From TrEMBL:
Residues 1-17 form the signal peptide. Pfam families: Avidin. Its main location: secreted. The keyword Chaperone does not apply. This is Uncharacterized protein. GO terms for cellular component: extracellular region. Keywords: Secreted, Signal. GO terms for molecular function: biotin binding. InterPro entries: Avidin-like_sf, Avidin/str. The keyword Secreted applies. It is found in: Secreted.
Amino acid sequence: MMRVLVIILFGSLVCTAAPFGGSWEIIERTMKFINGCGIAGKWHAKYVATISLTCKPDPSLTGVETLSGRWSNAPDNHYPLKGRYTKVNNDYYLGFTVAFNNAHLGNSGSVSGLTGMYDAAWKSMTTFWVMTNKTDPQDNWQNSKIGKAVFTRVSN
Ligand SMILES: *[C@@H]1O[C@H](CO)[C@@H](O)[C@H](O)[C@H]1NC(C)=O
């Protein structure tokens, strides 16, 4: 029984490997998926946040992917982040959003959007953010702030 299973498994492996171009592409995609993109990993911007990023390839296009990750503004306070980027050579043009509502602190009534770029030569990610906080209706005209955050890699 075991031997039959092994033969069937091996046979199907050989069959899928036969059209070499196709299976190489699958291997390449799998490796890229495992390794993530060049900006995957942990980053820190002083006084702002520590973020970790993962990338999900867009099957229909090259150089543009979906970003996911975690935004932490305290060791025990995390929020999901979601975004997109497009890549030119080794530079990444990226943007993502964080909605400040989690189980730990509840709904803070605020959201941030960041856009910026990772410059391969600078090895840092320079972003500008706009943060909107809930205010009383008469203060809606001043419910948003803009700022700059420069993220550098956290080694670990
Ligand atoms: C705006 O929201 C952020 C994130 O929830 C919070 O840290 C900050 O204190 C808020 N600012 C104001 C003025 O409410």
